[in-house]
Amino acid sequence: MKKTTITMALGFTLLGLSACTTQPKILNDTSKIPVVLQGKAKVTQNSEVITLMPAGTIIPFNLKVGGDVFMQNVQKTFTVKLRRDTYMYGAIGKNIDASNSWVSFDKKHWKTLQDAYNGTLLLGVNVTDKDTSINLAFEANSKN
Q: The domain containing residue 34 runs over which residues?
């Protein structure tokens, strides 16, 4: 059986390119910001909070496949667990992007998402005499 593999690797900084971003002054004294446990507290839309996601928190990882190449669009959700406690600062109900969301692992030192994480996305097509498959791999790592 002859196998041909075509792989395209895309290196990227998770959640966008780095831009000059100044830490919000409120993060200099986080005692003024309520800390809520991921999924456990009721807060109002646009409330500024620090969300604590303890180690072991389950995070849904959504994957969508679609487009005019395929006869149908599909979506699948996988679950992953955080390795360590993670604090996120941002307003509930607002879109989180790399420039307005801050991450800390100790609630003292804060970084933007793109300064805290990086990742690799691998896309491959495997062709054999029996079938063809498309493979997608994602890896995320903290930068510190």
A: 3-142
Residue closest to 16 by CA, chosen among 84, 93, 116: 116
pTM for the predicted model, two decimal places: 0.68
Find how far residue 64's CA is from the centre of its chain: 15
Q: Report the C-alpha gap between 51 and 47 in whole angstroms.
A: 11
Using the structure block, give the residue that is written with the tokens 């507290």.
Answer: 41
Domain count, the chain: 1
Structure confidence at residue 94 (pLDDT): 60
Q: Give the model's confidence band at 131: pLDDT under 50 very low, under 70 low, under 90 confident, else very high.
A: confident
pLDDT value at 55 more than 60: yes
Q: To which residue do tokens 């510190």 refer?
A: 144
Output b/e per residue, 18-54; b: 16+ Cβ within 10 A: eeeeeeeeebeebeebeebeeeeeeeeeeeebbbbbe
For residue 141, what are its two tokens? 């790592």
